[in-house]
Protein 1
Amino acid sequence: MLTPSPSRATPTVKFECLNWLAADPLPRDQTQSHRLHEPQHLITTIDPMTGNDIDDVTSHPSTVDGNLTIYFETEASRNSYKLMPLNHPNLRLPYPAADSDDRGG
């Protein structure tokens, strides 16, 4: 008696079809994922003042700015980052800026 081997079995999905569509999406794929496009917290291990990558962050200074944690090589580079003036258009508006003015870009 011949039994079909796995190599001779016909695939259930023919990928050579150009207009192939999945039959049913998984429950996790039925809604848009917010974690991919809107991360809850970001961590950067590249010192923005020197451009050097920090391998071990446990002994390096850091600062938290909203949902971003920035690690620095030295306390001096951290202080120079904090003393750097902001270059943001809201600082030069002819009227006081409101939270609704920020478009997030």
Protein 2
Amino acid sequence: MDFVKDLGRKKESKKLSHIENKNIIENYNTLVEKYNEINGFSQDVVEKHNLLVEKYNQLAEDSETEKRRYEEELRLQKDVTLRIESKFSELQKHVDRLLESYESLEKENARLEEVNRSLEKYIEIMDKTKKLPVKNERGAGRKKKYNQDHIDRIINLKNSGKEYLEIVDLLNSEFEDMQWGIKEVKYVFTRYKNMK
């Protein structure tokens, strides 16, 4: 159950924070302002270019030097227009990429919120479910070979000064349900002598 709760917390931590969403929106708004600024400037340049073309056509009969001056100004204006269009195109691509990443982040955020809601429902259901205690109805499992009577008898006999062989004979006569040996008696004594 703790694992499921932790998993839910880990998923929840992947949500976009309010600050990250705000930063993305501020970046987007800044790019839109730049876009509008460049767009306005490019329209001004196009209008100026058109005026220069009109003046040039009006001055077709004027002197050659005047024409050259206008031609140079037109060429310079055309270069500026091309640079603006290039910057405008780059900015538009950047805005498009930013919008795509923002939309994908919003989709991922919505998906993670849905996963988090399902995990919370699952945890709530699991918390309400009663846990059945583990039972050992048949008494299955390993039984202790030596009971407390065996241990107490061996320790008392050894502490009273009896040798292991004598203890074995006494145990075999007292506890007929088991067959005792010197190794077993030594094991029981060394294992349990400090527990009394």
Protein 3
Amino acid sequence: MDRSIGTLVVVALVVLSGCTMIGGDTSTATPDATPTADGTATATETVASTPTPWSTATEEPTPTETPAATGTPTATPTPTATVEPTPVGDLDPVSELSSLPPGVEGGSVTNVTALAQANQRQLLTGGTDLTMTIENSSREGTGHLRIANDTESSLVHLTEAEGALGTSTDLSTYYDAEESGVYNRSSGEVIYGHGPTTSRFTARFVTGLVYVVPQAYASAPDWETAGSYTTDAGEERLVLQADSVREDAGDQSLGGDVSDDDEEIRSVEARMEVTADGLVRELSLAVELDPASGESYTQTVSYTVADLGAGALDRPDWLSDAPQLRASTTADDELLVVEHTGGPTIEAGTNLTVGGGFSSIGNVSADQPITEGDTLYVHATGESFDRTPHLSVNERPTLPENVTAFSGQIGLSGTQGNTQFEAAVEIASDATEAAALVRP
């Protein structure tokens, strides 16, 4: 099993299994997920133009992989990565660099944690396209991960063949300033959201979670400087190498360590190239492990990071597999207006949930199909937990005297076939408006 990728698959699918209610936040800040001392991910928000994405012209993880919208995952096996010996003789001295990344002083690595954290900050700042492969010899389960961030949108693609769940997994998440979605290619399920929905919450959660993986492998080895060089494009890089892991690496890695408690590390060979500001451009790692029972095996890890221009990501086509809804409110927030702007028709009688913030006011349904161009009007009567929603299609209703205003997050969600669709809006309170006035 691919230890880190497998853990992500399990957690991501557990989160997805609970995506049934509108909720989440509307922030488009880059999710900052860093491992705590016990190896868990703590998500905070780093102010950035927007979220975190991945490929420039397509959302496929590699040029050789073309996922199909079927129940059969299409992850392309990647040959076992090999770590070439560091060509120390071909490198310039470390002193040739105009500046050194955090955690490196006087030509030596003095703080691996600071070095790994600098890499994390650079990834979360945006404008990066990261691809990563984790593979274990003699064991099933090759993991592929891609995260890209063009500072305006975010797309993650995570695959594992016969991994932690005993089945193949192929999962994508996306979000930008307004839209969000999750696509489980293994099951064919698509979740689409516009505004502050559970789709956005899930996409942001998974995105923040996967950032822990490169952090884990950047911080585990006991790095030493090997030299430096300047690329043809003029970028200075510090080259590091390692033949062991740090004694406290278990406190920094997802799942505890690069090895399990019953495994002995027999050998380590690692190489990393880092820019002056701390961004890890390339990392390769091979760890030979000897378990208490069974045959020895080698875990190989490789990842590269390329630059990604602002707005370079395309909106993935699979988002359009679900009905596209847009929500707003009028009449002093007493009327929720939901427009069908494209995608499949919502069948007559489809159960639609009115609610927000992971809570429900109630359900409504239309006695006619809802197609592109149709508008749904929803209002509620009653108070507190005893409220009743009412639906009108393409005809703005006259609101009764006992109508009650919506507050907080409010929207409409439904499920049809393999798609879940959501649209919500955040109604500003006096407190949030006051906070907005003083926010720098």
Protein 4
Amino acid sequence: MTRPGPPSEPTHDTAPVPAHAVLGPAGAPRHAIVLAPVLARWDHGAFFRRIAGPFLDSGHRVTIYDTLSLLRDGDDLGSLVHRWVRYLAPREDPGPASGVHGPSGHAPPDVLVGNALGGAVVQGMLGEEWTHRAKVLLLSGPTVADHRLNTTLERIAATADAEGLPAATRLLEDVVRGPDGPAAAAHQRPAAPDAPAHTPAPDAPAHTPAPDAPARTPAADEPAAARRLAAGLRLLHDADARLPVRDFPGPLRHVYGERSRLVGREHLATGPLPHHRLVAVPRAGMRPHADRPDLVRHTLTRFLGAELT
């Protein structure tokens, strides 16, 4: 008897539609696709909304995807990239428009955006020819992971496995918060008078109560959220997208926090083209779009505006 082969990947028509949120009118002339960071629980695109204005103002519809919603047991980063390529790639046979058949009416996106893990996935897709007409924006999206990044992420993932989501969230928040966050202010210096208010991390849904606050009742889905967080962080182990980034012919912009303690300049790479650039946001940590949304919006307005001239 012949043993059946391994199950095949779903076709483009039958693949599940990933969790997503849409901003802007359906008839917008341009389309931006955003891949989210590691989120213990999908936040329906909240992490991106503070900086969506430049996209909407320049005529883009913005589709924000939960990057981990296509993750399957046993996947590594390459497998996840492959799943997103299959889902986002334009179809050769247009057929009737449907969310199941792809996100953008079968046309390639005008802008590809990735935040953190989402940025690593976007960079992994840049060898695909259909991405070459897009502008690429990466928000603290590592191109390459070194020993320090591997070790830090594994420490948080192992804590999620052994101690649960609240403990892992505390470690994560410690390395991603902005330099003017509450803990930094307590241990370093008071925030400058014009420093922005600290924004709670969108990918850290469980918060540690103050010492005199009542104990928090764990959510029923907390074990699943902890597993999801750990799996997402481990995907970045030894990530390396330097080759597709180097050969990408379109505009590419890295935006990162100058004072990030997780993904920093050493984890980012560009190609030799003059429109591949690095933008360091001053007084910002791993989430420059949360720490300094004013500066990031200004950067995005300039980046997108060049497309319209």
